[in-house]
Amino acid sequence: MQPRVAIAHERLTDVAGSEHVVEQLARTWPGSTVHVPFAREEGIPPGITGRVHTSPVQRLYDALGQRGHAPLMPLVPWALQHASLDSSLIDALVVSHHAFALAAVGAVDVPSVAYVHSPARWAWDPQFRRGEADNRVKSAALTALSTWARRNERRWAPEVTSVVANSTAVKARIENWWDREAQVVHPPVDTSYFTPDPAVPKGDYFVAVGRLVPYKKVPLAVEAAVRAGVRLIVVGDGRDMAAARAVAGPGVEFTGRAPGEQMRDLMRGARALLMPGEEDFGIVPVEAMACGTPVIALGRGGAVDTVRPGDTGVHVHGETDAEIVAGFAEAMRDFDDARFRTDRLQEWAADFSPANFRRRMADVVAQVL
Description:
Elements: E1 5-9, H1 17-28, E2 33-35, E3 52-53, H2 57-63, H3 76-81, E4 92-97, E5 112-116, H4 121-124, H5 126-130, H6 136-156, E6 162-165, H7 168-178, E7 183-184, E8 205-209, H8 218-228, E9 231-235, H9 241-246, E10 252-256, H10 260-269, E11 273-275, H11 283-290, E12 295-298, H12 303-306, E13 313-316, H13 321-333, H14 342-349, H15 354-368
Parallel strand pairs: 1-2, 1-4, 2-3, 4-5, 5-6, 6-7, 8-9, 9-10, 11-12, 12-13
Keywords: Glycosyltransferase, Transferase
Protein name: Glycosyltransferase
InterPro entries: Glyco_trans_1, Glyco_trans_4-like_N, Glycosyltransferase_grp1
């Protein structure tokens, strides 16, 4: 008989990588409930509609017009303590954690598993935080929120029965910042949607896909492509768009946000996907490999797990922006398309399938029980 499981998450306001994780966790235990401080309809993955329970903070979120969530984040620990979690109705709690959700373990007296996308990197790493605030007011607010996030994680990390990291890089952060051991379970990637298509021929371009935000370093990829004299298509939008356009040349094309099928076909046709930023895990590179496209990635963070040099892509090494640009330019200039086989890339990506994720997480919960 399946265990009775409740799932806690920080918010359901937009559907991104962590929300897909929550959806797959809910599919692992079909009778589970999902508890969040606040949610909006557009942020709930279709697979968990009708299973979401919110907290009293939902009324405040509604009063704000469901527009901004940042001012409510300090309330998340309190909200999860006052969510509709009942120890008598569950055997285990699974927490999807970014910065504040860990507090949910204090609401129940049952074994718990924390699936950690990362400890709050912006809270623990001052250098990362500097890239996330572009004026003094935002910087002061983020510093205050960082103090609150670190306090929250220090308080509740010792109470979790078992900690799971989404990559070996995140596992190292957990051990360093929380003083806890963690096992690694990579997040799910939709390998049934991201597939090769013989009808989409390989083009003469590289591609960068995702939000244009500071930590993803997309302007460095643009600068490197210009230096290498190669064609680059940038798919996505964000506050780093102006910086990326400022260093672009005639060989760089910006599509903005693209529908899923268009984005998938651009990845299918690319010589390689570029990932110049350090990701906690990085789902997009695995999506590209599932499409039969290799990856040129900064050799840190999640790329250490997902990109196998010479087999599924290339690692670029560098500490400064200038070194990273030079490394990516060299990697694109010298890129050997013949080294990478579509079937091998697809085979490697298949290990990150949702079915494998669900099986591994079911095993973790079985262990704590």
